[in-house]
Amino acid sequence: MGTEHDHHHDHHSHDDHDHSEPPADVALRVKALETLLTRRGYVAAEALDAVVDMFETKVGPRNGARVVARAWTDPAYRQRLLETPTAAIAEFGFINRQGEHMRVVENTPQVHNVVVCTLCSCYPWPVLGLPPVWYKSSAYRSRVVIEPRAVLAEFGLLLPNDVEVRVWDSTAELRYMVLPERPIGTEGMPEDALTSLVTRDSMIGTGVAHAPGQASTR
Questions:
Q1: Any catalytic annotation for residue 20?
Q2: Between the CA of residue 147 and those of 2, 56, 161, 166, 167, what are the distances in Å?
Q3: Per-residue pLDDT in tens (0 to 9) along the chain, 218 residues
Q4: Which residue is catalytic, options 20, 121, 137, 196?
Q5: Where are the domains of the chain?
Q6: SS3 category, 197
Q7: Cα–Cα distance, 194 to 214 (Å, whole number)
Q8: What CATH superfamily classification does 14-22+61-204 receive?
């Protein structure tokens, strides 16, 4: 893809749908299923905790945030990340299924990138964890290609008209990750502190990295 698309008004609004959390009934069903499985002895609670911990802390957005922070502070690593992304990401040990073939696209003052999977929900698990509910929705998958600016606005991201929007379609063979712009005022900040500014949405392209002192939400 990689080109800007015209957009029009659509009734699906950001206020009507929480883009960061699954519906309450889904959470309740998952909890009920977990309780049933553990009570009947099919699954050990410790095993479930280990799986959750793996996706939240080992293959979650924290991994991608570390990659981004390194690229912000190390020009040589940034070059490797853009030229040979899979190998560069593997330097952190973040290589696994759903992330064997990666491409990293860089946001600049002139270009803003956003990622989608139009066919299903292909997503780079090793660096971003599990895909959010909205990423898998038919509304996002179809609309972000046709009217990306309108969709980004629903996430609270309003881009200047002179910024080109490029939409990238992830597939089972190739998965994309956005390298967000480094926030202004972060010069001299250590890599660990920069990591806390990188959000999951900024690595999908539906958001930007936080400014110093701004709380990270997603």
A1: no
A2: 13, 31, 14, 11, 10
A3: 544 443 333 333 333 333 334 444 545 666 676 677 777 777 777 776 776 666 655 557 999 999 999 999 999 999 999 999 999 999 998 776 555 689 999 999 999 999 999 999 899 988 998 888 899 999 999 999 999 999 999 999 999 999 999 999 999 889 999 999 999 999 999 999 999 999 999 999 999 999 998 855 56
A4: 121
A5: 14-22+61-204
A6: coil
A7: 12
A8: Nitrile hydratase alpha /Thiocyanate hydrolase gamma (3.90.330.10)
Q: What contacts 35, CB < 8 A, 6 or more positions away? A: none
Which residue among 13, 20, 120, 196 is the active-site one?
Answer: 120
Is 122 assigned a catalytic role?
Answer: yes
Q: H or E segment at 215?
A: none
Bridge partners (DSSP) listed for residue 165:
112
- 121 given a catalytic annotation: yes
Q: Which tokens in the block code for residue 3?
A: 């080109």
Task: Give 132's contacts (C-beta < 8 A, 6+ positions apart).
Answer: 19, 20, 200, 218
* CB proximity list for 161: less than 8 A, separation 6 or greater: none
216 is catalytic: no
